[in-house]
Hints:
The protein has helices at 3-8, 13-51, 61-95. By secondary structure, it is mainly alpha-helical. The protein has a domain at 31-87. The longest helix is centred in the middle third of the chain and has 39 residues, at 13-51. It is rod-shaped. The model has no long low-confidence stretch (mean pLDDT 85). The chain crosses the membrane at residues 16-43, 63-84.
Amino acid sequence: MTARKLFNAQLSRDKIIFIILLTFAVICLIAGIVLVALGSADYLKFVELHLEKSSKQIQISKFIYGIFLLIWGVLLLVLSALFGNSQFNKKLNKNE
Length: 96
């Protein structure tokens, strides 16, 4: 299929939903990896101070948001895989 035919083809609602799910999953995974990488030094310092029973507080929000986005991205990837499998099975049943 040439690029021209691909761009001229109408996307079904299911394909658009699938593409949106994959896009959000990839964005969440990339943002999560970046935030975990940026916040890991603060998290290690937080754990070190906690083990020393220090009263000094360090903000580890970047690390926590990174973990949250990683989990969210993985869940979205699972959801998109299940959705894609459902659409593939519908297509197979329609052809039979």
